[in-house]
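Predicting holo structure, pyridoxine-5'-phosphate bound.
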Amino acid sequence: MEAIKLGVNIDHAATLRQARGVDYPDLAAIARLVEGAGAHGITIHLREDRRHIQDADVYTLRKTLTTRMNLEMANNPDVLQVALDVVPDEVCLVPERRQELTTEGGLDAAGQLDALRPTVQALAAQGTHVSLFIAPDRRQLEAAATLGVPYVELHTGAYANATGDALKRELDALYDAAAYGATLGLKVNAGHGLTMENVKPLLAIPNLDTLNIGHSIIAHALFVGVAQATRDMLAAIAR
Ligand code: PXP
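Done. Tokens:
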């Protein structure tokens, strides 16, 4: 089986910055560390509410990234304009509701074929690989194939939150969707809510291309970094 690639979502480094309205942490520097550690791409979500990633981040990162930029966005003309301007390597179209804590459900591609088609076509025309963030559901995979996108990203949020029998059902749905996607000629990514623990059962899915993981990596970074950060501050205030 081919190795699974990792796209690291750095939105929550921006969340930390936006919480104070300051100019640190420097996202380009974070992305450099992530890329230097071996990530295959950087994922950022330019939300309509600009809660974490800002337009300026997208432009800066487009210049500084040495791997692939995967821009997540809603099908919204204002954000589309940014995507048409910066030409990301990949765009993942996601649903968005302003009040949600994070992207809570998959995109209803089957119910929005006409609304999605011009966006998909405009992005494809500039060479951006388009992906649709969908639930592991055959109808949605068929819609993706109808739209002619090369990639889908299976929403692993329900799997990540499930326990007991539901966990087995969600895992089976991901296996089925990955296999069905492959028969439709789709490349299959997955992401949302994945951790070093719950990702393990997904690793045997044969045709999984990339996992996009963010929140748990940024959270883990605190544990592997906070002791050094404390030592550095002690050194900074020593006299
Ligand atoms: N993939 C998509 C399409 C997402 O919307 C998100 C969250 O922005 C992720 C992956 C990463 O999810 P998490 O931060 O929970 O790892």
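The beta strands are 5-9, 41-45, 68-73, 90-93, 129-134, 151-155, 187-191, 208-213.
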